[in-house]
Write a structure and sequence with these properties.
Blueprint lengths: L2 H9 L7 H20 L4 H9 L3 H19 L1 H13 L17
Length: about 100
């Protein structure tokens, strides 16, 4: 075990996914959902997701995606899809605690 891993283990924190990897994982899931739910009707939204520079930009695209899906597929189906997408942001969205010490 590397020293860095040992240090974080002592503090009770696990290694987290690199920010770039999180952005790409969320971006890919959003793009797949748009294609599956909206097909070619989502060209502009797909472009916005593709051009989003960070996790915060992707986070704030969620309402637009929800609205587009609800209009085309119905609110229940859109909510089900968005629940899965939103879960991908766990600990990575604006307002998420940046560290376990942020509450102090």
């Amino acid at each position: 075990m590397r020293l860095r891993n040992s240090f974080w283990a002592l503090l009770g924190q696990s290694e987290t996914e690199a920010p770039e990897a999180v952005v790409e994982r969320v971006r890919d899931a959003m793009l797949r959902a748009l294609v599956e739910q909206l097909g070619q009707d989502a060209q502009e939204l797909r472009q916005q997701v593709h051009l989003a520079r960070d996790i915060e930009s992707l986070w704030y695209l969620r309402p637009e995606i929800m609205n587009a899906m609800a209009a085309r597929r119905g609110e229940a189906r859109a909510r089900a899809c968005m629940t899965g997408l939103t879960a991908l942001f766990k600990d990575h969205h604006p307002g998420a605690a940046s560290s376990r010490f942020s509450a102090f």
